[in-house]
Amino acid sequence: MAKNILVLAASGNVGSQLVAQLRVAGHHVRAGTRNPATAEFPADVRVVRAELSEPETLIGCLDEIDAVFLLWPLHTGAQLPKALDIIAESTRRVVFLGTGGIPDLSFEEQQGLVHGCGIESVVIRPSTFAVNTLWWADQIRTGDIVHGSHGALPMSLIHEADMAAVAARALTENSHAGATYTLTGPEVLTQAEQVRVIGEVLGRPLRWAELTREQARQRLLADKSFPDSFVEVLLDGYDTMMAAPRPRTTSTVADLTGRPARSLAEWVSDHRADFG
Ligand SMILES: NC(=O)c1ccc[n+]([C@@H]2O[C@H](COP(=O)([O-])OP(=O)(O)OC[C@H]3O[C@@H](n4cnc5c(N)ncnc54)[C@H](OP(=O)(O)O)[C@@H]3O)[C@@H](O)[C@H]2O)c1
Questions:
Q1: What is the Å distance from ligand 1's center to 203 Cα?
Q2: 169 part of a folded domain
Q3: Does 13 map to a domain?
Q4: What is the pLDDT of residue 75?
Q5: pLDDT tens-digit profile of 189-218?
Q6: Where would I find the beta strands (DSSP E) of 149-262?
Q7: 249 CB near ligand 1 (under 6 Å)
Q8: 15: Cβ below 6 Å to ligand 1?
Q9: In this structure, are 91 and 204 located in the same domain?
């Protein structure tokens, strides 16, 4: 049966995929954005203003909504409890995409808040997004060498379409309440190996050139497309990941969606135009 779903951060990598997949499946989609006047969504999507740093803006978005997709793009988690309270007052289900990117709220704390919010809840814990490789797009457009630190850092990159596919199931099926799903791509690749795969798909001899952390820091700070406030968070995260055991892949995408998680090569193929 068609459901009414509110997708917050609907213009983002995951949100826009989720909007598309829910529409294809016949559900009624409401899209939350800070800027409804400039947002571009299909005509059958109702667009609403949702500013997560002002959770009371959610109140007017929730009438007759069956389930909400929420992620937290802010650098503080201070308002997450209030946002969850407002969502829980008006709807029956929330699906939350967790993150390691909130300095004052760990993933475990996010998970505790979401599962404790009083309605059906699902938490998705994704591995690193494949879309992060676009941070190298400028370098790839202008040469065959990608400069960065932590080239030996292994990661499993996940396609936004796979996160959206799992979220769509969790939003619309009744069997997921209380679950935390850890999602990865199908492979583990170091950053240097990722550059090689991107080159293979683009037909280019791309290679990695290692920088020190300080050199990488300066380079990211000089990159106006990269938020300054995120530079230390990212590099600290990479240091932590370097010291952790090599990541392992999960079969959760395949288990829940019936198709294997997409590889980095598939992701690059889908985003070929973004590399110019
Ligand atoms: N990159 C990774 O490797 C990684 C890994 C794990 C988790 N995550 C998490 O994934 C999330 C990002 O997802 P994404 O890549 O799909 O998003 P994105 O493409 O980076 O876009 C950000 C989205 O957040 C919305 N947004 C930003 N600030 C907002 C605010 N104050 N109020 C309401 N909406 C706001 C934007 O909507 P409008 O501009 O339309 O308002 C936009 O849709 C973050 O929470 C990040 O921590 C990322």
A1: 31
A2: no
A3: yes
A4: 87
A5: 999 999 999 999 999 999 999 999 999 999
A6: 154-155, 180-183, 189-190, 207-210
A7: no
A8: yes
A9: no
> DSSP character for 50?
-
Residues 116 and 141 in one domain: no
Within-domain flag for 91: yes
Q: Alpha-carbon distance 4 to 6, whole Å? A: 7
Is 178 domain-assigned?
Answer: no
Q: Which of 70, 76, 97 to mutate to test the pocket of ligand 1 (most atoms within 8 A of CB)?
A: 97
Q: In what order do the strands lie in the sheet with 120-126?
A: 46-49, 28-33, 4-7, 67-71, 93-97, 120-126, 180-183
Across the chain, what does the average pLDDT equal? 97
Protein residue with its CA nearest to atom 37 in ligand 1:
9
- Distances in whole angstroms, Cα of residue 192 to Cα of each of 57, 79, 80, 229: 43, 37, 36, 25
- Does ligand 1 lie within 6 Å of residue 153's CB atom? no
Query: Ligand 1: distance of its center to the CA of 132 in Å?
Result: 12
Which is higher by pLDDT, 229 or 97? Answer: 97
Q: Which tokens go with 115?
A: 């599962």
